[in-house]
What does this fold into?
Amino acid sequence: MREQPLKEVTQLIHAIKMGLVEGSYSITNKTLDIFKYIIMSKSWDSADALMQIVRAQSRILQAALPQETVTSNIARRILKLTREEFELLQAKVQHFADDSQASLSLHKLVTQTSESCVSVDYSVPQQGLREALLDHLQEVETELETSSENISVQAEEHIHSSEIILTLGHSRSVENFLKRAIKKRQFLTIIVAECAPACRGHNLAATLAQEKNVEIIVIPDASIFAMMSRINKVIIGTHSVLANGGLRAACGANTVALAAKHYSVPVIVLAPMYKLSPLHLCEQDAFNMVGCAEDVIAYDSMPARDAKVYSPMFDYVAPELVTLFISNAGGHAPSYVYRLLSELYHPDDLEL
Amino acid sequence: MQKSSSNPQQNASADKTREQVMAEREAKKQAKLAKKQKSVTPATTIITEVEQTTITQKLTTTTTTTTKEQSELPLRSINVADTKTASQSSAQNSTDSVNPTAPGSEKTREQIKAEREAKKAAKQAAKSAKSNNVDAATKQLNNLQVATKIEPAPAAAAIATGAAATADHEKKKPALTKAERRAIQEAQRAAKAQGQTKKTTVTPGSVKSAAGNSVKATPNVPATTHKEHKHDRNDKEESPAKSPSKGGTVKADRECKVKLFNHLVSADKDASLFINDPNVHPSMARLGVQYAQRTIVGSNARCIAFLHALRQVVQDFETPAKKEFGRSLDVAVKHHVDHLNKCRPLAVSVYNAYKQFKNQLTQLPTDTPETELKELLGHFIDTYIENQIGKAAQAISSSMQEKITDGDVLLTFACSSLIQFICEEAKRRKVTFRVIVVDSRPFCEGQEMLRRLHACGIPCTYVLINAISYVMPEATKVMLGAHALLANGYVMARTGTAQVALVANSHNVPVLVCCETHKFSERFQTDAIVYNELCDPNLLVMDGKCSLNNWQSKSRLTPLNLSYDITPPELVSAVVTEVAILPCTSVPVILRIKPDIGY
It folds into this structure.
């Protein structure tokens, strides 16, 4: 059965591909809007039917944008929400309050067996599900909106005065985090690796330089190791967090993390919850994406005709190189990511 | 042919040495060839800076192979030499490297290749020059205007130098006058830089008239003026760093704003440095400018260029009255080295060569005539180049050949003449391998490496340094060049090398550092910050729309452009030297058993 994409979904895919919608945050926001629209306006009579639609549309999104894992993440969130709300309503009806997943008592944990997890029949029509879902979606939206803010308020807990911080490229979370840190702490030195060939680090440096009481140093990517011996903390953003606690981050992040490991510098990764994806690193080709090589070497230069030139977008950073994740819900060790994932998504939804 | 040309000179100098004759002959050949080539293909006659640098860098290869083939095919090579060495020698002349063995010697394959490559580069440079023609032309006009005003000054300076004694009659020798002219040009350019800071605007009318003047001013060499202009233009092309750095002189005081690097002085780009100092030999003055503008980069190339310039200084040196030759020369050379150090901090290789030379000076016999002593020193310089750089490269290459096998994927960083030599040798042995060239902004030296390897037909992959994790799984070996090996086993090399070694280590790929022993240093260093070289931070600013544009106006923003970094020994599997393949930590052993290298 092939599902047809909704008009909104096609529009979003087009916008992202054309670069009109950029950054994980806005993509997540737009995807959430689409799912909200589906819940509101689509005719579905049971939770099962709704989940079918959500699954189908998110599969389409995933196929069209294999790198943007946030769309699937938000779909999983909605599926989980649907399940929860449905079960809650069912429980209310049947007065089986202790059967709801929300109250896992110690007694239940001990006595629970695999058979006791009776599969719930989601195809039963349920009154009031739509309203309950929309209510809950509002919460998710608020969480999304405040995620960046929630991360940056933690800046004071991690940065002391006159610290030397290194960051790579330009991440919005990192920008807000550092701005907050600059306001709260004095005499910071922030070293920005430019992240060639796009050199988005320049933008970050220019933005941060507008603040007071801070020294911004822009270095080429090659000097990361040379500078690392003087750095107190590495703070980077990431594209997504993998299930094992590893990162799919901007190209060059692996070098930064390795250099930090070499000098035992803590690596702090800012990752809002919606970037957590239940994926594992498969082979490099599926994981990565190569960009336009024109910026790396001009097409019309003589050796470029025969040489292979790559401009990959992402780097895999192993979980053992990451010291700490800071999400909107607080700090987490990389080894704890699996647990966060199981709380965030329903196990049946890991495979969409 | 030789007599007719040397008539005026015979009157002047009774004891004409062999070298002079050779140099003269070579110069004539070059002049002839220049004429011939001009009529056939004007593009190739342009001796650009590119050509110069490639030739100097190529010298590593050429010097070794000449000695090898000298014994093997003397007959064939001499025949070839007559027909073909001329153009090669012209290139060599332009670098002021009148190698006494070169003119009579042979034309090896490498030389032809080098030449061809240089020509290609020249053509390309000419092509790119066309696009920027207008801009360059106006700049040139500005240049010439100042030139006419300054004209008498360098001439006076030239007389004041040691070279001046022979300068009068040598003016007819194209090779030498050319060198002088270049020095003068350099001085003019520097003067112009100063002039620009004083004068804010230049009216186009006056520029034109001034340009006319300057052409008139040098009517005795009409054939070469054209070439000179091209030179000039190409200089402009080659050093984009120059124009921003001129603007940078305004804020020179805040150049080392990064607190961590306050102790490091970035190279003084002040124009007054390049104004003719009467005590600095033209060849050294020129070398200083070439160092500062980074037209000569790479420690081998810098070392060779230095030694050639040094030979010129020795040749033209005149002992002051009632002074000892050795001692006074020592003082003079020290002055020159100080000058070079001001232009750009000395490379370890240059410093070692200088120390060796100084050592040689102290051991000079006292009872021999000056000409013989000069010959002795010239010989010393030649053997130094041949042994320490040429033969060492060959030895390293031959031991590296055992390490390169079919199907290998070699990963290298930036540009190293030694690595290039090794790859070419492997290609010649018909090993099927490919090379991944890793590069980094802002210098993008890897593009030059890529060009050279591509010219030999080696399949290449090219990535920037942050994509290194992407290509590292393919690599079977990492080969790195080095600027210097420190006594504690740390490798000092172009910034980024340590990162490559680090990532290679994490992928369990062996890292081989190739380094001749003349680059070994007695210094101890544990990080890249205590001693380093700061390059022009403006190079980090990308052309076009870049948020770093006019960073000078933002007080809190500083781009930082480090030259070198330090690779700890635990990241290096082995160092390949001409003595042996060693662990990094054995550097002090080499320093001990080869005490003539550094103390």
Q: What stands out?
A: Chain B touches chain A through 57 residues (CB under 8 Å). Residues 436 and 471 of chain B are 8 Å apart (CA to CA). The first helix of chain B runs from residue 2 to 12. DSSP finds 23 helices and eleven strands in chain B.
